[in-house]
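Box S1 | Example of a co-folding query
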Amino acid sequence: MPDPFEQLVDGLLAHNYGQVGDFLDPPLIVALRHHLLDRFERGKMHEAGIGNQALFQKNKAVRGDFISWIDETTANEDEQKFLRRVNDFVEYLNRTCYAGIRSIEFHYALYPEGSFYRRHKDQFRTDSGRKFSLITYLNEDWREADGGQLVLYGETEEKINPQAGRAVFFRADEIEHEVLEARRPRMSLTGWLKNR
Ligand code: OGA
Ligand code: MN
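Box S1 (continued) | Returned holo structure for manganese (II) ion
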């Protein structure tokens, strides 16, 4: 098996997205899941919107997740470990593909039971800085029947279970995707690699 960074990049070069099953170590996943749930229980996560700035609106018919941004300056030890892992990947990507990534932004996401995110692309019209999307899942023992699959609309359609440790990586301006209705709470760290 190629190493996780190589596997993500190989997929990207072959068909604009890559995925890998072991992007994060299991103990780190457990820790991050606890931090997410802690933020949620303390009321620190807010309903996500669609669009940004002037175009920002909340629309439950489009997406139903709650999010909370990770602030590098206040990140705890586990969140810093996560950000270091992503930055190592960025370094690999810039070195092997001249990707020109200069910053990252990440948030926790929780989809309550019954929520989804309809088909969309991630790059906003007013923020073309987002080059790549990177999603890491935090859900132990996810089953097909739990719903909540990520569907990627590439050359072919692919359904991905949001299983703990799995990471999905794709071109933010190319790949349309959707989150099917989750039948149990669905947790992730979602973010973007930007060229400014
Ligand atoms: C997003 C998104 C997909 C997922 O937050 O923009 O598409 O699998 N998330 O959580
Ligand atoms: Mn998206």
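The helical segments are 4-15, 26-41, 77-97. The pocket of N-oxalylglycine (ligand 1) is lined by residues 109, 117, 122, 135, 150, 162, 177, 179, 188, 190 (CB under 6 Å).
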